[in-house]
Design goal:
By secondary structure, the protein is mainly alpha-helical. Helices cover 72% and strands 0% of the residues. It has two domains: 79 residues, no CATH class; 62 residues, no CATH class. It contains five helices and no strands. The longest helix has 37 residues. The N and C termini lie far apart (102 Å).
Length: 146
Amino acid sequence: MQRCPCCRARLNKEPQCPRCKADLSLALSAGAYADYWRQQAVAFYLNDQRESCLSALDQSLRLEHNAAVWQFKQFVSQRQLPLNDELRHLCIDTWLHARPVLQRLGRHLENQIQLFLDEHPPVETGQMMYQRAIKAISQISNKSFG
């Protein structure tokens, strides 16, 4: 609560209005309970407990009117599938659409790599040069002594 419900003065942390001296302790505690029920509602929602979520949102709205809580309640009450099922369907649909594209991309990349290797043969490494030198030396020594 940011303003006194009696005189609309700006409130500080005290449970009493600085202007009209109204005792706001009950209203502030109702706000704290409303916060608690909002947090519970979110936890229920994330665990796919739709009915418990709606009940917690009702409790919060009884204690304190909040437009965001009301909109969240409308959103939850209109949902058909639990969150996990909806995400699962979205992932499957996305994968089914992406799989052929990824397969084509994979074939394209394989072709591009092969073209590059055909145009640019791999550079000879030190190990390859050493093996070639040993092979050449052994051929020369076989010819010389054979």
